[in-house]
Amino acid sequence: MLVTGGAGFLGIAVVRRLRAAGQSVAVLDDGSAGTLRRLHAFADDAGVVHHLTSVCDADAVAELHRAVRPWAVVHLAARHFIPECERDPQETARVNVAGTASLLAAWRAHRPQRFVFASSAAVYADSTGPLSERSRCAPRTVYGHTKLEGERMVHRQAARRGVAALSVRLFNLYGPGPTADHLVPTALAQARAGGALHLGDLRTIRDYVYVEDAADAVVALLARDVTGRVNIGTGRGTAGQEVVASILEILGVTGTVARDPARTRARDSLAVVADVRRLRAILPAWRPVPLREGLLRTARTAAVEPRHPIVSRGYRAASGPAAAASSAAPAGGPAVVSPAVPQPSTGAD
């Protein structure tokens, strides 16, 4: 198995589930999010090997496919925080579109049987009702455009090469350990700090999916012969005011809420809720936790996980020429493989 962005918010949960299912996992993650310390949990696990490289490095990605020969790829690596994507559309396109293209080009070196692409609800046009996989796509954001282009590339190439490809359209993920200032972690942090909460437009309605449940769905879909597009959502929409009210109640605090223009997006859909009939038909046993229970679990942890550039630099050092002969990770991390010196497969299939 190959998981890109395996140290990310969703990625680490997917890696945990794959290992629990007995899969060996090669993790491709360049550390740019500053979350590589999450991989320390696999320091003594030979079934997880970290490859420190970027999805944008086409040569290194091809070398990795030759060395690991994964039977399946779960492609999660992306720039996803919409304000950052809007500020730097070129970098967003480089990572989200060119990075995906490099993975598809690597099929010339080794063609996987399965390919799961992490897409987004951001590909859809505005709608007054639930969004099904057949709903019209007309992204309003740079991020949404890059994800829709990624889907199109994946499914075109998969049809040509005989790869079973699935795009999972993820709705609003939340849970412990996010690195971006989305509503749930931001509201938690501000409510804990006391005083007024300064947030964006809380009238918007979103379909909130607990990150661990999303990981369960991704891994379960991977194990089934499913292709095309599948929404991963709960089918229930919740307004931002309700989310914030629940957070205040869970923390046992009170606070006034003010609208912060700096956190209000210029282009935003009023309601983004999944039609999950296809997901339920494929995974009838999948039951996401109710929002309040997910918020309770999230509130037990830090609101926003701090980034650790020092840890990331440590991993980069481990992949340099001086460390090429060693697979030992710094500071108790998992085995790290230099992209310049591909290692023979150690069962990471």
Question: What does this molecule look like?
Answer:
The structure is a single chain. With 349 residues, this protein is of the alpha/beta class. The protein has a single domain, classed as 3-Layer(aba) Sandwich (Rossmann fold), CATH 3.40.50. Helix content is 36%, strand content 16%. It contains 11 helices and 15 strands. It has an 8-stranded parallel β-sheet with strand order 11-6-5-4-1-2-3-15, sandwiched between helices. The chain starts with a strand and ends in a 12-residue tail after the last strand.
Summarize it.
The chain has about 350 residues and is of the alpha/beta class.
Please identify which CATH superfamily we are dealing with.
NAD(P)-binding Rossmann-like Domain
Task: Pick out the low-confidence regions.
Answer: 308-331, 338-349
Distance between the termini: 4 Å
- State the share of residues found in helices, binned by percent: 25-40%
CATH topology: Rossmann fold
| Count, helices | 11
Secondary-structure map with pairings?
Layout: E1 2-4, H1 11-20, E2 25-28, E3 48-51, H2 58-68, E4 72-75, H3 82-87, H4 89-105, E5 114-120, H5 142-161, E6 164-170, E7 172-174, H6 183-193, E8 197-199, E9 205-206, E10 208-210, H7 211-222, E11 228-232, E12 238-239, H8 240-251, E13 257-259, E14 271-272, H9 277-282, H10 291-299, H11 309-318, E15 335-337
Parallel strand pairs: 1-2, 1-4, 2-3, 3-15, 4-5, 5-6, 6-11, 7-10, 8-13, 9-14
Antiparallel strand pairs: 9-12
Helix pairs in contact: 1-7, 2-4, 4-5, 6-8, 8-10
